[in-house]
Structures are given as C-alpha cells and as structure tokens.
Amino acid sequence: MQVLAESRVGEVEDQLRRARTQLDEQTRQLQDVGLVNARLTQENQELHRQLLDLDTGNASLAKTRTDLQQQLQETKMKLDDETRVTFSRPYLCNGRAIGTVVVRPSVRPSVRL
After folding, report:
1. pLDDT tens-digit series, residues 54-105
2. Is residue 72 included in any domain, yes or no?
3. CB–CB of 108/102 below 8 Å?
4. What is d(CA 11, CA 23) in angstroms, rounded to the nearest whole number?
5. d(CA 105, CA 89)
6. What does each C-alpha distance from 20 to 24, 29, 30 come to in angstroms?
7. Comparing 78 with 20, which gets the higher pLDDT?
8. Residue 105 lies in a domain
9. Residue 7 domain-assigned (yes or no)
10. Is the pTM of this model over 0.90?
11. Residue 77 domain-assigned (yes or no)
C-alpha cells in the first residue's frame, strides 16, 4: 500500500511540474501579447495624430483653393471690365470733332487725336 501511495505521489508531482511549466509558458505568452498590445496602441495613437494633421492640412488647402478661385473670378471680371469698350464718342473742340473719346469701365476716359 505504501508503494501505491508513493507511486500516486510521484504522479501528482509530475502533474504539478507539467502544470507549472504550462503556467510559465502561458505567462510568457501573456507578457508577449501585452507588449504587442502596447506597441499597437502606441502605433494607433501616432496614426490617429497623423490623420488629424492630414485632415487639418486638407481643410486648409480646400480653403486656400476656394480663396484662389474667388480671386481668379474677381481678376477675370476686372480684366473683362478693363478690356471691354462700352462706347466711344467724338471729342469736340470749338464745335469741331478733333478725335474720339473711348470710355471703359473703371478706367479714365482716354482721348485719341
């Protein structure tokens, strides 16, 4: 009976050693997973920051584009106004026509002799 008890104790000790080995292995795996999780969390935060920077830059570029389009339209309108001749009329001196006056919007009348 004592031999049987010693045999049983040996089996239990083997099971205990296997359980401790498994526990150590699972602890190492858990630590590895924790390190990967921490690295991925940090990487995610950095990517999120970069995304916010890109969104800010995109909004700034969109505003600049809108401003430039508006300036272009205003410049085109000014150019059209300056180049368009609205009317011309004779320039009279003592009742005689000695030239024509060309009137353009936003530009002083010019006299051609």
Report:
1. 999 999 999 999 999 999 999 988 887 776 655 556 666 666 666 665 555 5
2. yes
3. no
4. 18
5. 15
6. 6, 14, 15
7. 20
8. no
9. yes
10. no
11. yes
- CA dist 88 and 67 (Å) reads 36
CA-to-CA dists, residue 14 to 6, 10, 21, 27, angstroms = 12, 6, 11, 20
Q: Which domain holds residue 21?
A: 2-84
User: Tokens standing for 84?
Assistant: 């368009």
Burial of 50 (0-12, 13-18, 19+ CB in 10 A): exposed
Among 14, 22, 20, 19, which Cα is nearest to 6's? 14
91 Cβ partners below 8 Å, 6+ apart? Answer: 97, 98, 99, 100, 101, 111, 112, 113
3-state secondary structure of 22: helix
Kindly write down the DSSP assignment for every residue of 51-111, as one continuous string.
HHHHHHHHHHHHHHHHHHHHHHHHHHHHHHHHH---EEEEEEETTEEEEEEEEETTEEEEE
Say how many domains are in the chain.
1
